[in-house]
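Weekly modeling sync, notes
Attendees: S.R. (lead), two postdocs, one rotation student

Agenda item 3: backlog of single-chain predictions. S.R. asked that every request posted to the team notebook include the full sequence so nobody has to chase files. The rotation student volunteered to paste the first one in as an example of the format we agreed on. Action items at the bottom.

Example entry:
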Amino acid sequence: MPIQISIPASGRVVTAEPGLNLREVLARAGLFLENPCGGKGKCGKCLVEILEGRLPPPTSEEESALSAEEAARHIRLACLLVPKGDLTIALPRVEGEARILSSGRSRALALEPHLTKTLHSWPGSRKDGRPLDTLFADLTGTEVPAEDIRSRRFLAEAGGGGDKADYFTVLWAEGRPKGLEAGDTRSDLYGLAVDIGTTTIVASLVDLKDGRELGVRSLINPQTRQGLDVLSRIAYCGEKGAAGTAELQRAVVEALSGLALGLAQEHRIDRIYMVAVSANTTMLHLLTGVSPVSLGAVPFAPVFTRGLSLPPGSLGPGPLAEAGLLTLPSVSAYIGADIVAGAYVCDLENLERTLFIDIGTNGEIILAADGRLLACSCAAGPALEGMNIQYGMRAAGGAIEEVGVRLTKDECLTELEIIGGGEARGLCGSGLLAAIREFLRLGLIRPDGRIRQAEELDDSRRSLCRLWEGKPALGFTGTDIRLTQKDVRQVQLAKGAILSAFRTLLLKTGLEMGHLERVLVAGQFGSHLSVASLTGCGLLPRELGDRLEYVGNTSKAGAYLALTSRSAWKAMDQLAARIEFFELAAFPGYDRLFADSLRFPEPETIKAAN
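Predicted structure, as returned to the notebook:
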């Protein structure tokens, strides 16, 4: 008899295939749990409550990941639980719609789309028996490409006469006909500009006749079900082989198709002709069905970095079946098209002493100085986006996004700003850094990252001291949410990675901090951070606070420019070739620099900054 998994809250009953763990069973049924570690039992996020059923005993990995309270409530890790019989379970509350950044700085360029249309009428001579493709060549000045059987089929239909066959529209690209359409369809020419991030996907619908952006939609990248960072997804492809790559490609193509269908229906559009995509190198490999495994091991060699122009059909069946695919160029395995797009949008090659930084799951940095563009990347990890954090969550309803602490003689109160209002459910990335900033300012977290215990304090700050599994933690007034020592260490590692990369670039070019004229902060995460949090936690040096500029989602802005300007797309290839990438680990003394960068600012420094 097949094993049945019942979920009363949703009325679903799922059949479990033998040998699959509960996370895989639920994923195959379209029910996805958070699993930043890619289902390896390390993050402790894929929690399910077992309401009824026979269970195997927990593994040692589960016992170490679950608190005593969770174990008492029959909470288990779905990725480590292989059902042995029928189960009735409760899933964690699903987060509300995530807040995803879709806008960013751009630059003005003349409209120069990859596709255009012209209208033509058949002459009476089509009745004289000459081949219709010969007549087409006489009318347009070019021949139907030998491989274009679709247009020949259209000509066959047109040769039968009738009102619709008296005139036709030709679709052109690079001076060659790419398709024929019955009647006058010149008013219908639309494309998508897309940013595929590790965590989120943003798509905007663009009228290619005039460059207008008609609408924007976004969603969480469904590939997150196989891990929140690119290394987890690369490892998944390594474990599963071609099937893993195909699965992740299918996930992102289906997500794009869903966004496209929604935009097309909203704006009453029948066809999307082209999709321009900006993304990191791993996401581009997966989108095109190319295994990213070579990106995960020395020498970290991409299969391709040039921008690609792929024909219709590259995005599978569905609403994008007739759309060509355009990808932006990358530099290396970890300086992707999203960073090239940002550098182009911000005109970085014409700036001096400027730092461009995209803060996210990975931190990518480009320094423009003395006519050079020098780049490096660091693995910041998903903590800065609220993941791998005990009470972490995405920037969705119920997430704490800002924290203030009011200290008096008799009490210490935390004042919380919560997305959507209401009850706090967790900490998103900006709230996490705001909390650490405030606790550092009050001396509740030491510069070495250790949370102070209540016994060390003799004033009202003690009221915020908590315990988590017997270890020091910090709380928030009126909530059960806690900041654990492990959470602080996760942020500390991300901070060390970003700040050490920043300092290494300066050392490599001989610049000092005071020489920088501006710091451009891009990306989903960076846009929601206050200057106080960036400098208060030491991710960026305090003296640069007045030189920070937020430039938003420059990856999508770059995709828009590539879609609407052939010259811009080609210029991005030239720009990518100019960017010099180097490995941080190869820089002499980097290990020491990284260790030094782990230290948080002293409380006196933070007070001065505020």
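Discussion: group reviewed the output briefly. The chain has five domains: 3-90, 115-182, 190-327, 347-381+494-609, 383-490.
Action items: rotation student to repeat for the remaining queue; S.R. to check formatting next week.
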